[in-house]
Amino acid sequence: MQVDLAQAIALIKRGEVVAIPTETVYGLAADARNEDALKQIYAIKQRPANNPLIVHLASREHVLDWAAEFSPLAQKLAAAFWPGPLTVVLPAKDAVSSIVRAGEPTVALRVPAHPIAQQVLQQTGLGLAAPSANKYTQLSPTTAQHVANGLGNVVPVLEGGTCEVGIESTIVAVDEGQWRLLRLGMIDEAQIASVVGVQAALPTLQDDKSLPKAPGQNLLHYSPKTPAQLFTSRATLLQASEKSDCAVLLLGEGQAANGKTFNLPNDPVGFAEQLYGTLHQMDALAVATLLIEAPPQQPEWLAIHDRLTRASYKLN
Ligand code: TXA
Ligand code: MG
Known about the structure:
With 316 residues, the chain is α/β, with parallel strands linked by helices. The chain has 2 domains: 2-207, DHBP synthase (Alpha-Beta Complex); 228-311, Threonylcarbamoyl-AMP synthase, C-terminal domain (Rossmann fold). The chain is built from 9 helices and 14 strands. Strands 2-3-7-4-6-5-9-10 form an 8-stranded mixed beta sheet, sandwiched between helices. The chain has a 4-stranded parallel beta sheet with strand order 11-14-12-13. Helix 1 crosses helix 4 (115-124). The protein is globular. The structure holds threonylcarbamoyladenylate and magnesium ion (MG). Magnesium ion binds next to loops. Threonylcarbamoyladenylate binds next to strand 5 and strand 6.
């Protein structure tokens, strides 16, 4: 159900949940201090209660309403990357609802850049809890139509065009002068290190096998409904395509003899922007498998690798 800006603001102030655009993906937004509204988010997403939500803020001025401390390192990150596709996990104030942080001692904060998200934040004057506006483990939405397709027409959606970044924000945990990446995104480790002046004090969470699984780092995530398979060799992919009922995703130009072919730009920014939209389209074809060409193993492609690995997890 489409709503306009004024309706979205009124609904959110009343404690309802509304899907809103951000520059990364659409978020399912509600007042982060309203526990009934937070429960609705979990119910609509069918998300386990142990997976915390990001609180979106209009500006960094609001950080200390939620975080117990805003350390110099975290302030440098905020100054460099907000508003934008970066989420910072900080020690939470006691007053922050345990529902929004799923019982964790920390809270995840992000100042989004999308002008419509900014208007909603500024005009409600609230911190908005907003996970991606999709059911648990499924593909994130990058258009209002994806939200309606995934969640049904009963969820109010505020139209804001196609999300420009196209994949979810980078998540960095900051504590006592150390930082670690919890989720890869288009702001990469090198960019963060150059701003804060220290290499990641700890390895990226998913590479650290010694740690228990963090909330939300479930490998089966960001998945199309159709089983997907990732190929490092185009020749092997094309061979596989000859024998299957498939759709094919190629990096740059090219064409499979069998199966509808989708071509994504051979640059990480362009690829990320179109990735989920393309996967949604491929999924809608109702073929037996999606065959996906893996991008090169270079740092600027790491976040895309992460999403593709998760998208293809069922088969690999
Ligand atoms: O780009 C984005 O981040 C989008 C837009 C809407 O802002 N949001 C998003 O939210 O991707 P969600 O809920 O789908 O993913 C947030 C991730 C989850 O994996 C969750 O476990 C993690 O952030 N997270 C949230 N709070 C956390 C915390 N206190 N500590 C560790 N991880 C946290
Ligand atoms: Mg999500």
